[in-house]
């Protein structure tokens, strides 16, 4: 099954009942899976996760980003990283119990290259989360060079980790290629960042919004649909992360229509009565 979703709860005003800020209820009227990105900056409390559950139908599943300390984006001697793993495991326990946790997403930094220490860190992640579904997005293209690609995929399979297949512009600075390989029998995640070549190289303060400012054409969506259909896992989550210009929701809905996907058990759509 292909499940289509978006990332960033509040970034889709065209789906918002109030016409301004979208909510989980707004999003799960259309999509069966949602990526939570705020957990990268601050781990959610148990009560917050329980409130998320109250806003969505039982059909909805979540991808939760691991924190920036867990992914090694930030290293702080005052932050106990093992404690972060413990806190996140405690927080997502209700989602595990209700089978609403699709994966914990480890989006690793570009400087997380192919080294013995980094390979051991992936092993350590599995040790700390022995039972939870873990998805890995590698952002250093060294892992996919011909000399390392098969070993990279083999390690993910050995660790029962979900490979994140990315779509992003291929810049000279070392973008990660699309490697359409499944490493887990149950799930593969596609994260679609857009193809804004200039924005991907943006260095100003606006880099975050510029790099994902992109709308996929119907032709590109068709190509991505072909990739999703050939991935050898039971489920494929296609997550649109091209939020920079507000294009993610429209592209996600167009993708659902293109692939003739029909989801039951979603939340009610809000009707415009005015």
From TrEMBL:
TM region positions: none
Stored Pfam families: DUF72
PANTHER family on file: UNCHARACTERIZED PROTEIN YECE, UPF0759 PROTEIN YUNF
The protein, known as: DUF72 domain-containing protein
